[in-house]
Specification:
Length: about 400
């Protein structure tokens, strides 16, 4: 008789395996893995200028950056999402990063605007767009998923052209935010100092490809193909080399600052030094906040036993986020409008206040309706264990 493993145990097994950070494959890794992603390709040209196409510029720059690193940095493994003129779906680009246990993901693009006057370089990290122009850039880049036949299933109903879809990026806990922003800041510094580019700054927006990559990640918009003089620069040898050198220099600094300890020999270091430091700092911040506050804190980076069910399998917990503040607030703060048992968690340097904790989605939506008159902007968030996840992901667990 054939023994059949019940599917729920199989599911549990995969959950446990994926939760184990002591993955031996990862532990034996001694090099820094950098994934370089040349935007667009194949039947997707990206933005089109007078004399060039985005997909060609991004590929050239990626190859130049990759060559510099391969020549000069023997402890870095460069992985390319594409090295030729082919179409790669967005989801696959992120998979390349995840399958290779990337330590950094750099996606390279070229901007375009209706106004031909717009010019300059900008670097994005994942986050909720704070301005229409940032949102427009993310919408334009995410729109490539529409070129795939099955994009609705593949991208789980995410509509790149609907503003509502982007709300999910506010729900997201990005563990890698600080590292991504520090790298993005150095890229912009190099662009302005070495390549004499106009600095459009470090920005945040909801890029699918960044959200799916489980490592620090940035998306660079090198310049505007729609501005003729910038297009000339982007297509010139001098321009392309200056841009590539700038990215290389910023990367070198990042690697030296964050991954000095990467060349360990015992092979049991499961997390990069940067992430360990980040985690320690988060825990310290949570502790500090706890000491100086009278509101219960939801730990974001430590185990929360209360969330474990009897099987040890973690169930998502839904909460309602009612308020965010750069400073910690007392439980009797006017902004809570008399609500009792408010909790908070820290994310992106903000104190985020929540109300309620339910494992059933229907109960949390009911609770949200109850407080809707007082908190019309409140929204539902979800945690599984210490990890904040998207509500749509959480709903898959509970179904
Ligand atoms: Zn692009």
């Amino acid at each position: 008789m054939k023994y059949k493993i019940p599917s729920k145990y199989l599911l549990l097994f995969f959950c446990v395996v994926s939760l184990l950070s002591n993955n031996p494959l990862h532990a034996q890794k001694k090099e820094f893995v950098l994934v370089l992603d040349a935007g667009h390709g194949g039947h997707d040209p990206g933005a089109i200028g007078k004399i060039s196409r985005e997909k060609d510029i991004t590929l050239t720059i990626v190859r130049l950056v990759g060559n510099l690193i391969e020549k000069k940095l023997s402890d870095v493994k460069v992985v390319y999402t594409r090295k030729t003129d082919v179409f790669i779906p967005l989801e696959e680009r992120a998979s390349v990063a995840n399958n290779n246990h990337a330590d950094m993901f750099i996606s390279i693009h070229v901007n375009a605007a209706k106004s031909r006057a717009a010019y300059g370089a900008e670097t994005y990290t994942l986050g909720l767009a704070k301005s229409q122009s940032n949102l427009d850039v993310a919408m334009a880049e995410n729109a490539v998923m529409l070129l795939e036949d099955d994009y609705q299933t593949k991208y789980r109903g995410f509509d790149p052209s609907s503003v509502d879809s982007y709300i999910m990026f506010e729900f997201m806990m990005d563990t890698y935010m600080d590292n991504s922003i520090s790298f993005a800041t150095d890229i912009q510094k190099q662009f302005t100092q070495s390549a004499k580019r106009f600095d459009r700054g470090v920005r945040q927006a909801g890029f699918w490809v960044l959200h799916r990559s489980a490592c620090p990640s940035v998306l660079i918009e090198l310049g505007f193909i729609s501005n003729y003089s910038e297009e000339m620069y982007l297509t010139s040898n001098i321009g392309q080399n200056e841009l590539a050198e700038s990215i290389y220099s910023a990367f070198l600094k990042y690697k030296n600052n964050h991954y000095k300890k990467l060349n360990y020999s015992n092979g049991d270091e499961s997390e990069s030094a940067g992430i360990q430091e980040k985690r320690a700092e988060d825990n310290r911040k949570v502790k500090e906040a706890k000491d100086s506050d009278d509101i219960k804190v939801t730990p974001v980076n430590t185990k929360d036993e209360a969330l474990n069910s009897e099987e040890g399998k973690q169930m998502p917990v839904f909460k309602i986020q009612i308020k965010a503040s750069p400073t910690s607030l007392k439980s009797n703060h006017a902004g809570f409008k008399g609500l009792k048992n408010v909790e908070y968690y820290k994310e992106g340097g903000m104190y985020k206040y929540t109300y309620g904790a339910e494992t059933e989605y229907s109960k949390i939506t009911k609770l949200k309706n109850d407080i809707n008159a007082k908190f019309p902007d409140a929204f539902i968030i979800a945690f599984v264990g210490e990890k904040k996840i998207t509500v749509s992901e959480a709903l898959k667990y509970v179904k």
